[in-house]
C-alpha cells in the first residue's frame, strides 16, 4: 500500500491521460502557509472529496520540531437552526452569530502530527500538492508524510516515515466555542460551547462535536460529527491521554503516540456522523486499503478525462484552470452545497458565516462548471436551493402577503443547506437573491436539456416567476420595471431606492425564457406563453454619459452609488448583449467596461474577478489588453489582498475565494463559445493551444491549433443534442468536410445535421480558400 501511494505521488502515467497537462502539475510551498488556520481564504494545501475538506498547515522549515496539521471541515457542519424560521443560531439572541463552524484539525482543531526532533533537524523541506490524484507530500529532513482524502469516502489516509526511528505525537481535537454571546435560556447552557466529547475507544482516538443541542431537535436533526484516528496495517497507537482544554479556542483533545521508522506507518482519520441520541461512533477497520486506493484513482481518472485545456504560452492560465477544476471537485459533490470557503472552514468565526451568499458568491463557483463538462458538480447547489423552497415561500408570505403574490418564492441573502437560513437580516434590501440563485439552474438546463431536471426544477422557476410577476410594474413605456430595489449591495446602508438595477434587468429575460421552456416541455402552455412574453418586455438598461459617450449605470436610482459601472452584467453571466448584438449595444457595453477598468485598475474590484473578464471577453473588449490584465492578476505578488495562492485559490480583493473558480468561464470562452446559439472555435485565442470542453446544445468539442490556424476539430454529440450543429467556421474556406462529406460555408457559418452519440471530424477543404 505504501509503495503504491508513493507511485501515486510520483504521478506515473495513467492510460488515456498522456496528453493531460494536469498529470505533470504540482503545487509547491516554499514556506509555511501564513493563513492556516484562517477566518477567510486559507493558503495551505487543500484536500477533500466534495463534502469533507482538509486544510493543511505546517511549521516553518527552520523550526526544529516538525509539525503538520490537518484541519477538518465539512459542508454539512454548521450551527443548527432554532424556531419556525430555521435560522442558524447556536441558541443565541444575536442570530447573526451562526453559520458554518470548524470541526477540528491541528493547531485549531483536527489532527496534528509532530515528529521526533532528531528526524527533522535540517532547516529545509518540501510540501507538494498533486491535483491529478488529490494527494499531498511533505518532507523535512528525514521526516515525511504522504496524505490523501478518498475521492468518495470521508477518510484521510496518512503514511508517515522517519529516517530516525522513534515516536510521533498525535493530537486529535475539536473547537471550544461557537462565537457570540450565549443565550442560556434558549440553550439551557451557561457557555457558548457546542457540545463536544473526547475519549479513547479501544486503540482509536476519538473527538466529536455536535451541531446543536437537544432542544433544537424540534426544528432540525441535530447530529454528532465524529473524528476518529487509528493505526492501520499493523500500526498501533500508544500512551493515550485526555486534555479538557487544549488552547484558547481549542476544546477537548486526545493525544497518543505512534512508532515511526523508514518503513511507512499508516494512519487514518475518519469522519462519521450520528444522531443526537446516538452520541458514540462505530469504529471500523478499513480492511481493504488497496481497494480504497484503486477506487480513489479511478474516480480522479474519470474526472480529469472529461475536459482539459492546454495553453503553452500561458502556463499560469493552464495552472489556474486545472486547479480551479480540482478545487470545485473537492468542494462540491454529495448533498450539501459549499459556502464562501468550501469545506475548508478552520475557525469558528469564519467570515460572513461561511455560508451561501446568494447575491453572486454561491452561484459564481459554477459559472464555468458546465462548459468545463463537470455538470455533476452542480448537484449539491441544486439540492440546497430546492431544499430552501419552503423557507422561501414562508418569507414571501411574510413580506408579500395577499392573494396577488400567492405561491411566490422570496429568498434570503444568506442561507445554508437543508433549508436553513444563516442570518436574520433577510433579503438585505435586494430582490435579486432568487434570480442569482437561478443562474446555475439556467446553465445546467442550457447544457443538458434534461427533462428529469426540468421536472425537478419547475417548482423553483414557477414560484420565482410568480414573485417577479407580483413585484414588476408596467409603466407608460409598456415595459416591465423593477420599481423598488437595490443594486446589489450598493444601497446599503443608506437605504436609497435604486430603481431598475442593471443586474436584475440583465437576468430577468433569460430567467423568464428558461421558465417558459420548462413550462412548454412539461405541458403548461399558458405559463409558457405568459413567461415568454415577459422575457420580451423587460425594461431597458439605465444609461448615463461618461466622457461624452453612453454607458450603463448600476441602476436608474438617484445618488452616487447609481453611477455608470454596471456594464459587466449586461453580457455575463446571463446578460443580453453579445457579439451578435447591434453595434450600438456593443459600443455601450464596451464603453461601460472601459469605465469599470478606469475606476478599478487591473480589474481589482472586490467581487469582480469571477465575472469581469468573462463579461469583457463576450463583447471583445480590448482582447489583448484584457488577457494581459488577467495574467497580471494571477501572477501578482505585490498585493496581498488580490493574489492567487499556491493551492489555486484566488483571494479576491473583497476577501472571498471559492467563487473565483468561476473565472474558468473566461478561459473556456477564449477557446469555445456557444451562448449565442452557435459555436465559435478559438474566438479569443490565436496562439498554440488545445482543449476538450462542452458546448450548449449537447456537444463536446475537442480542438487544437498552432500559431497559424486550427489544425484539428472534433465534435461529439451527447444523448440529448440539437438536431443540427451550427458554427462559425474556424477556417477561411467556402467548404468544410464533415466526416468526409462536403458542407458549404455561408457568410462565415456552416450548419450540418447530427445524430445523438456520434462523433464528427471537421476539416477545411483547402481547394476552396476565400
From TrEMBL:
InterPro entries: 6-hairpin_glycosidase_sf, 6hp_glycosidase-like_sf, GH95_cat. The keyword Amino-acid biosynthesis does not apply. The keyword Signal applies. Residues 1-19 form the signal peptide. Keywords: Signal. Residues 312-537 form the Glycosyl hydrolase family 95 catalytic domain. This is WW domain-containing oxidoreductase. It comes from Durusdinium trenchii.
